[in-house]
Amino acid sequence: MTMHPGEDDQLPYGPDPVPLDLGDELDLHAFNPREVSELIPEYLSACREAGILNVRIVHGKGRGTLRRTVHAILDKLPWVEHYSLAPGDRGHWGATLVRLYPLLESSS
Predict the structure, then answer these.
(1) What is the SS3 assignment for 32?
(2) pTM, 2 dp
(3) Helix, strand or coil for residue 47?
(4) Which portions of the chain are predicted below pLDDT 70?
(5) Architecture label for domain 2-100
(6) Strands 25-27 and 54-58, how do they pair?
(7) Which residue ranges make up each domain of the chain?
């Protein structure tokens, strides 16, 4: 999976694609905040397809704007079973833990 952070040249993000290894953590620091509304659903969908049902999204502590955006996106995704802020040893309010519903197996 390759994402293209910072397609707007006026932002401090480069135009080069950032290769993403599909795993249980998505660190949003490398991405333009305007891209997270597309990035998060695509990433979580790919995780779900790969059977990765517990994901940590790192959004940083800051003023909480990106955290609120992430939570608003998660609220709209029907395959998100549950999410919560991470415990202290996993990022506290700088990260969100997400539990995804598994894909339903088709009975053919």
Answers:
(1) coil
(2) 0.78
(3) helix
(4) 1-20, 106-108
(5) 2-Layer Sandwich (3.30)
(6) parallel
(7) 2-100
